[in-house]
Amino acid sequence: MNLTTADITELKALLAYPKGIVILTHRNPDGDAIGSSLGLRHFLEKFGHVVKIILPSEYPTTFHYLRGIDDCLVFDNEQSRSFEEISKADVICCLDFNALDRVDKMGPAVLQSKAKKILIDHHLDPEPFADYVLSDTGASSTCELIHQFIHQLGEMEKLDANIGDALFTGLITDTGSFKYNTRPETYKVAAALKERGVDDYGLQDKIFNTVSEKQMRLLGHCLANRMELVPEYSAGIIALTKQDYVDFDIKRGDTEGVVNYLLMLKGIEIAAFIREQPTIVKLSLRSKGDISVQEICRNHFNGGGHKNASGGAAYAKLQDIIDRFKAVLPKYVDKKVPVL
Questions:
Q1: Least packed by Cβ within 10 Å: which of 83, 138, 246, 278?
Q2: What pTM does this model have?
Q3: Helix, strand and coil percent figures for the chain, each rounded to 5
């Protein structure tokens, strides 16, 4: 769903004079959510707008290098102020989510707000709550769409290295360093950002080469003690218990990327990372090729996302979720002779 010529004209008029703008993204923000939010904020501030980013929950410390991240409000920590910012906003930008339940308790406040709402996202089936929608499921990331948004507004000269660093962060993280979810436009955006002074090597280093000793030991535990393979269905599973969270003092962001290690195995085409939380079990799925983990999460785990990267959750025992995942595999993956 692209912005029409009329939409662009209206948006130019809307953003021509300073406004109070709130940018929202989804709970458990990742590199694309944070990068698109900060990139858009830096861009909008060039017009004199007063911009506040509200994150539903804490962000991974991996992204501390991005300028302005310390100024983001975290709803879980500052609920009253977050609601106040939403209530007085002239414009609300919703990035990297397609439904208001992804911003938790802020959803009803956004729906009731009289502010103009702009949705920029690349997930399936966006809810019809926004006045302006830029939605493209073929895009690598919301950061790619923010670049498109800036281009459509005819304001590319305002794109600088700070905006570029934020947007390139989303490109890197949502494509696994350009290993999946890419299309020709993705590389064109990457090239354009590099021309603006982005140090892509430096960003890769900051994102992937700054893990702590605890995270490295946790990864070793996951691979040595918590990995299970289902080779006849080309599947791999890593499941963490509540006790694992205690033993390794696991915090938000410590398990980022663990699921991807399963797909490094020869013959593994679908990976599940299952975590037992205090009151719920969460599941992250990744896949290769035509295996749609989005369908699996939507149909069996109250979730969704992208074809090859999705998540879900359920109020159940950890072993029940593991068993459920194994049970649904035959519906989505052809049984084969193991090649491991």
A1: 278
A2: 0.90
A3: 45, 20, 35
